Amino acid sequence: MGSKLIRGTMILTLGTYISKILGLFYVIPFNALVGTQGVALYQYGYVPYTIFISVATAGIPMAVSKTISKYNALEEYAVGRRLFKTGLAIMLATGLLAFFFLYMLAPMLAEYIIPDDDLTSNVNDVISVIRAVSFALIIVPFMSLFRGFFQGHGSMGPSAVSQVIEQVVRIVFLLLGAFIVLKILNGSTVFAVQLATFAAFIGAIGGLVVLFWYWMKRKPYLDALLAQDRGKVQISLSQMYKEIVISAVPFIIVGIAIPLFQLVDMLTFNKTMASIGLAKEAEAFYAMLNFNSHKIVIIPVSFATAFSLTLVPLITRSFVNEDHTELRLQLNQTFQVLLYLTLPATFGIMILAEPMYTFFYGHNEIGANILFSYAPVAILFALFSVTAAILQGINRQKFTVLSLLIGLLLKMILNIPLIEAFQTNGSIYATSIGYGVAILINLLIIRYYAYYRYRLVYRRSLLIFIFAVIMGVVVYLSYRIFSLFIPVDNQITALILIGICAVIGAVVYFYLSIKSRLIYFLFPDQVKKLKQRLGTN
């Protein structure tokens, strides 16, 4: 049973990573096709869509999975089937409602986003893009419940495959549609971006078709389980949905944190830039920050948080069992692993900002400078996700809502004055302050309720920081030397330069970790398995 669970989790994780990787690399041809104005327009549609879809679905697959799994373990299969049938109707209604609200709110949002006629895009452009992406809201909540149903039966394959197919179909439609409009039909960038955002709806159809196929294939087995139902548990639908909502809320909060901060930028950035005489540059800078740079910065965040969050179920068990010694060890490892993976990646992105930006979007010094300033926010994104997950593990998730709201309020208060003072970097500073305060609140709550002290984490963090600085110096010197004869302003040579410097940095960091034995403390199980495979003691 344990091996089946691990295998299922690995399949689902692999599907998520493949989807994320595809979601990262499509930006290279997409940016080349539509340019910075197109990227800005795309982001205007996607930020509100992400918030709506997070509220409508975030946490539903996990919460439904948890509920169905619980009753399946009691051999009460009818409860899960009833939840599935009623849930599909509710999710369809939720999706239609979310679609209606976003579609109708599009004009109001567009007027906030485009406050000045001097901007490249106009209000009608933004309305059309937001409305094009809103159609996906009809299908995605419905699809998320399907995924939760399969996961509740211990079957991760349908979710993983549907995720990948959804992403592939979306990206193919997005790129092909934009290419045909711009290169064959000589159409407008606005229409190309409309198709690109509508691709979310087409991708969702692709993912749903996969899930229906799995449903038809596995229905005989699921019906056989239903026939074995014990029928002894009587639970009302209101009780079930209350259980699901309580489970889903923490996932929703974490899921919408970044989009909410981006929404503040979307509603204030262009207006503020226009007020200081930078209306013509506003959209390009907005795209460079909240789409181009964000796509790169989120890479180390995804990998670091995924590794750290695997420890959260163990944290929950230790907390419930009141095993404070074990809980302290697990918290130590979670924070250290997070920093160990995120710090060097952040330093690497800062040092290699120019070739990285060139590889993804073409050479642009302003874009590279924005990426350099934005890279350290990766550490804050990762810390917020993990501290929020730990709060859920120790059953104090309500404080996640409090910390996020305080952080968001600070972002709203500081964003305009800081943009006026520091232009694009002002938005980054406001995000950093907002996230920093939210993380500080989470850390204090963890300290109080988990009886946890951060002494060891402070010491190890200092050691990790020193190693990251040493690695950074070596990478910087390597970059300066190799860039003398490898051009930075070409996408292919930029990739070569990134590869050489990344390998040198990884070797230095790994060597320091082994010599100090830090890696043995952070990844004891992984090191042990590696030694066994290599046949060393």
Strand-helix topology:
Layout: H1 2-25, H2 27-57, H3 60-73, H4 77-113, H5 123-134, H6 136-152, H7 157-184, H8 189-227, H9 237-275, H10 279-309, H11 312-320, H12 324-351, H13 353-361, H14 365-374, H15 377-393, H16 398-422, H17 424-449, H18 455-482, H19 491-515, H20 518-522, H21 524-534
Helix pairs in contact: 1-7, 2-4, 2-5, 2-6, 2-7, 2-8, 2-9, 2-10, 3-4, 3-6, 3-9, 4-5, 4-6, 4-9, 5-8, 6-8, 7-8, 9-10, 9-16, 10-12, 10-14, 10-15, 11-12, 11-15, 12-15, 12-18, 13-14, 13-19, 15-17, 16-17, 18-19
Your description of this structure?
It is built from 21 helices and no strands. It is mainly α and 537 residues long. The protein has a domain at 1-235. Mean pLDDT is 85; it is low at 1-6.
Give a summary of the structure in a few sentences:
It contains 21 helices and no strands. By secondary structure, the chain is mainly alpha-helical.
Kindly state the percentage of residues in helix. over 70%
For the biggest sheet, the summary is: none
Q: What are the secondary-structure elements, in order, as H or E?
A: HHHHHHHHHHHHHHHHHHHHH
Count of DSSP-assigned helices:
21
Strand content: under 5%
Low-confidence runs of at least 5 consecutive residues:
1-6
Mean pLDDT, as a whole number?
85
C-alpha Rg (nearest Å) = 24 Å
Count all strands and give the number: 0
- What general outline do the C-alpha atoms trace? globular
How far the N terminus sits from the C terminus, by CA atoms, comes to 30 Å
Structural class: mainly alpha
